[in-house]
Task: inverse folding
């Protein structure tokens, strides 16, 4: 197993490149199953989740090839003959459940395992199933699998309203509805950039969508979607993570530049609150420059659906608050118990207390290096950020969580001046 070892206190400076979006790449790969030929996807990051979903797709008989050097994935569903996603793979990544909508949209039938999930919070698939049923699918649960079929081999289409709005359920609905016989309508659809870029790819394949980027999306089903070449967008959560790193670790007065970035995808809320901390931001069409202030100001945040503050950045924001001289709160409204990182951060001297769905952070306390353990993707990177500003050495264990969503994190941070390295270790070895 791998761990990251960090020597804290090194200022960051220089230029880093943001990778392609993980949360967009996975829906794009699912959409490729609807095509009548080979789909080429560009700017796909080299991540554990991409490899996992490639294996899920390959089970169906689809050919998946990843050209690592070029960051291009080609998907050929011409020989898709097994509309199934097995538990052994789906349990590793919830996004594998996109196979339900993709296989129904293409084959009119699907057998997909119910997913596992992260170590925090129930994230039921009820909305996905109700949306698919509204399109006319017949659904049964058999031994942990969702078995779905379309009467006559093709969904008739229908109308559904999401409550609450959900990125995953929006994507599954659109995948299935794009190949329906008739018209469909999704109300209270998610408006995240991941969904909008996904809809752009469906449109490039010949899907007939209207209302993209709004809360109501209308879909006119088509007989066939065609192959295309499509470029993935930059990863907004990676960008936000690095912007926070720049704010807490940058040398005051010296800008850190992040390229291949789209700051509009972060939403105005994140940009506004980061500026309120005193951090100076320069936003370009494809870049962001971050200049740390002499002293960070504490700013409380509340997560919300897009364009609110991203839940995937709240763990990182907790570390930023610990670097200020005051007290502030993080209120989590999306996944109420997404706080597995707090006990680990407390091991490093961060005074953060969970009160219901809030974390109260007392800034200004010394952050000390310690051995800490990753529990999920975003919690993991918050531990890395804390290690960057801590006194002494921090060791972050079980970084396979990080590898799900951050491409070459230690390489990018090293290039910016961090003292960070990856090591192998034995999880069960006795202390020396």
Result:
């Amino acid at each position: 197993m791998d761990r990251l070892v960090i020597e804290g206190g090194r200022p960051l400076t220089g230029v880093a490149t943001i990778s392609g979006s993980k949360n967009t790449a996975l829906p794009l790969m699912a959409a490729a199953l609807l095509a009548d030929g080979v789909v080429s996807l560009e700017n796909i990051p080299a991540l554990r989740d991409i490899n996992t979903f490639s294996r899920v797709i390959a089970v169906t008989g689809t050919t998946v090839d990843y050209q690592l050097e070029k960051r291009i994935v080609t998907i050929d569903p011409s020989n898709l003959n097994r509309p199934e996603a097995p538990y052994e793979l789906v349990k590793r990544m919830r996004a594998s459940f996109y196979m339900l909508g993709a296989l129904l949209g293409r084959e009119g039938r699907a057998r997909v395992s119910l997913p596992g999930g992260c170590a925090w919070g129930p994230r039921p698939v009820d909305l996905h199933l109700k949306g698919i049923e509204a399109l006319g699918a017949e659904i049964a649960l058999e031994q942990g699998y969702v078995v779905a079929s379309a009467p006559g081999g093709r969904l008739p289409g229908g109308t559904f309203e999401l409550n609450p709005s959900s990125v995953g359920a929006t994507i599954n609905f659109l995948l299935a509805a794009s190949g329906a016989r008739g018209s469909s309508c999704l109300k209270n659809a998610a408006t995240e950039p991941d969904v909008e870029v996904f809809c752009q790819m469906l449109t490039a394949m010949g899907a007939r969508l209207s209302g993209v980027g709004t809360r109501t999306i209308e879909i006119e089903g088509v007989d066939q979607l065609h192959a295309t070449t499509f470029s993935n967008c930059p990863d907004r959560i990676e960008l936000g993570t690095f912007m926070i790193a720049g704010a807490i670790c940058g040398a005051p007065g010296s800008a850190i530049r992040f390229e291949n970035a789209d700051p509009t995808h972060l939403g105005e809320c994140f940009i506004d609150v980061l500026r309120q901390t005193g951090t100076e931001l320069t936003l370009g069409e494809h870049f962001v420059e971050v200049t740390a202030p002499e002293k960070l100001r504490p700013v409380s945040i509340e997560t919300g659906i897009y364009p609110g503050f991203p839940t995937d950045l709240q763990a990182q924001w907790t570390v930023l608050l610990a670097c200020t001289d005051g007290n502030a709160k993080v209120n989590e409204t999306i996944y109420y118990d997404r706080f597995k990182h707090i006990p680990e951060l407390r091991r490093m001297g961060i005074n953060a207390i969970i009160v219901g769905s809030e974390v109260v952070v007392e800034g200004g306390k010394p952050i000390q290096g310690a051995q800490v353990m990753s529990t999920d993707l975003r919690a993991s990177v918050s531990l890395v950020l804390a290690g960057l500003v801590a006194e002494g050495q921090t060791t972050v264990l079980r970084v396979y969580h990080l590898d799900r969503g951050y491409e070459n994190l230690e390489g990018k941070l090293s290039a910016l001046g961090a003292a960070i390295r990856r090591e192998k270790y034995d999880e069960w070895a006795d202390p020396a």
